[in-house]
Amino acid sequence: MNIKITGSGSYIPTEIVSNIDFAQHVFLNDDGTPFPHPNDVVAQKFLEITGIQERRYVTDDLNTSDIAFIAAQKAIADAKIDPETLDYIIFAHNFGNVKKGAIQTDILPSLATRVKFDLRIKNPKCVAYDMLFGCPGWVEGVIQAQAFIRAGMAKKCLVIGAETLSRVVDLHDRDSMIYSDGAGATIIEATEDKGGILAHETATYAYDEAYYLHFGNSFNKNHDPDVRYIKMNGRKIYEFALSNVPLAMKECLDKSGIDVSQVKKILIHQANEKMDEAIIQRFYRLYKQTAPEGIMPMSIHKLGNSSVATVPTLYDSLVKGKIENQELHKGDVIIFASVGAGMNINAIVYQM
C-alpha cells in the first residue's frame, strides 16, 4: 500500500493588489514614529527582498471557509471520488473566519465542519477538524492523513490549507505587504500505485522561538489596543529558517533513501524569495552540491504569502501546467517543505 495525492484544487482570489497600491499607506515604526523613507523606496526595497510584485485578496463577501470549500470541490472532482467516502477532513488555517471589518475570529463551528456542511456530506464517520500549525499546516495535515491511513483508520482524506491574511494585517506595518489570501486542497488516498509519501519530518522549536510570529498591537498608537494583528520578527525568522529548514529537509531525504540527484522539484513555503533561495542553496551545500537550475518553482511573485495555502496552491498550479517552464511527470521525486509560527518546520519526500 502506498499513500498518494490523487486530486488537487485551489482558489486564487480575484482581487489583485500591486505594490503601487500601498503608495498611500502611512507606514510607521513599531514605536509609532513615522517611517523615514517614502513609500516608493519602501516598495522597491520590499520587491528586491521578497520578490513580491502583487498579491491576491478575497472579495468582501468571502471568508476562509468559503474559499476552502471551492478548493475542496475542485480537489474532489479531480480525484473523481464520492465525498461521502471521505474519512477525514483536515483543515489547516491560523485565524479562522474573520469577516471584513470585524475584530473577532469565528471558529464555531470549526472551519472543517463548515466545509463538510457545504459539501453536503451526510456520513457522520467523516471526521472534520481544524489544525493550527502556522504556515506548515497543510504539510502537517498531509502527514497526519498518511498516519491515519497507515494505521488503518482511514482510506481517503481531504486536506485543506486556506487563509485570508488580508483581514488580520496592520496597514501601518510594512510587513503587511507580504501577506495574501488563498486556498488549496488535496485528496490523500491509499493506492496500489507506486510512489507516494516516502518520508516525512516535523519539528517544533519553542524554547526561544515561540513568539517570532504572534498577535500584536497596531504600530499606530491611536488604534484600539484590544484589536490585534499578525506581527513577526523578520530577522529572527530569516536566521531561524536558514539554520534549520535545510537540515530538516536533509534528514527527511536521507530517511527516504532517495539520492539528492533524484530530486526533481522542491515546493517550499512561499514566504520570501531571497529566503527560499538561500534555504535551497544551503540544502544542496549539505550534500556538497550546487542547486540545479529550475529546482524551485515559485508563485510568490504574483500571489504573495498566503500562509498554509502557499504549498498546496503551488502544487495544484504545477500539476495543472500553470507555471511557466515548470512541469512534473509520473515517477518524479519532489520535496514539500515549510516553516512558520511555532516555530514549526516540516518536510515530505514524495514520488509522483
Describe this structure as you would to a colleague:
The chain has helices spanning 39-50, 64-79, 111-118, 137-150, 234-256, 273-285, 300-303, 310-319, and strands spanning 2-11, 15-18, 54-57, 88-92, 127-131, 156-164, 181-191, 196-204, 213-216, 229-232, 263-268, 333-340, 344-351. The protein has 352 residues and is an alpha/beta fold. The strands form four sheets. Strands 1-7-6-4-5 form a five-stranded mixed beta sheet, with helices on both faces. Strand 4 (88-92), helix 3 and strand 5 (127-131) form a beta-alpha-beta unit. The radius of gyration is 20 Å and the shape is globular. The two termini are 15 Å apart.
Protein traits:
single chain, 352 residues, alpha/beta, five-stranded mixed beta sheet, four-stranded mixed beta sheet, globular
Q: Whole-number radius of gyration? A: 20 Å
What value does the average pLDDT take?
95
- The coarse silhouette is globular
Percent helix, as a range, is 25-40%
Short description:
This protein is an alpha/beta fold and 352 residues long. The chain has eight helices and 13 strands.
How do the strands and helices of this protein lay out in sequence?
Layout: E1 2-11, E2 15-18, H1 39-50, E3 54-57, H2 64-79, E4 88-92, H3 111-118, E5 127-131, H4 137-150, E6 156-164, E7 181-191, E8 196-204, E9 213-216, E10 229-232, H5 234-256, E11 263-268, H6 273-285, H7 300-303, H8 310-319, E12 333-340, E13 344-351
